[in-house]
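Project standup — Tuesday

K.O.: blocked on the structure for the chain from last sprint. Re-posting the sequence here as requested.
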Amino acid sequence: MNIVELPPAPARTPIRTPRLTLRPYVAADAEAFFAVIDQERARLQPAFPSRVAAVQTLDDARQVLQGYTQDWSSRRLLVLGIWHTASGAYLGDISLKPVWSRAVTAEIGYYLAADAEGHGYAQEALEAAVVFGFRAPLGATRLDIRCYATNPRSCAVAERAGFRRLPAKPRLWPRKTSPKSIITALRRPLPTSTGRNQLLLSAQSSEQKFLVEVQIQCKGKVNRLVAQIIQRLKARSQHQLIGQLIVAQHPQN
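H.V.: unblocked you, prediction finished:
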């Protein structure tokens, strides 16, 4: 049996994006943490049944947050609360559950309070979590997100961040009470020395296989640019594009 040596636990340093602050919970966050779960029980139940069941009172919330601190140290589960930096409002959280093997993978889960949805916060937090997951010390080779057919908005957030749906696999023991889940995945991008956003478009035909690499020097969304690139390639080539698009967000140097 191969024993995988775990890397050190990630530093508990806040992660800052243009509008948000993501950081591990502390004891003082219990009231805000409890309030969102208590207000959103029915909505969170399908995707987070264990958390909803565990947090019935404010004291429960305190115990759960204490457990998250221990989980962070043991690298079992890495949970980050999400705050709006300017207002200080607590919005929700995002977590990574690693599977420690030679090729580390991690599953990401996230939720926002209902009044925080529709502002792009989930997208912003997810993109930061992707960078966090791929970087050392976690160094995941693949990140997964389990979405639910009853929550198409969450699936759309994952796909806009570059995640792609995996073929559906039936459960060995189907759950009659659980909604149908959709697994999306994002693989760690190829290393680049530029530190800029990188787009890799794989395409192949019966005659040839080729790779197109485009270096983007700007931040922000790239979906529109990607669509333009694909259209130009189709217009210039007689070969049918049947490859997969991988969007890799790299921080600026």
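K.O.: great, moving the ticket to review. The first strand starts at residue 15 and ends at 16. The CA atoms of residues 25 and 79 lie 8 Å apart.
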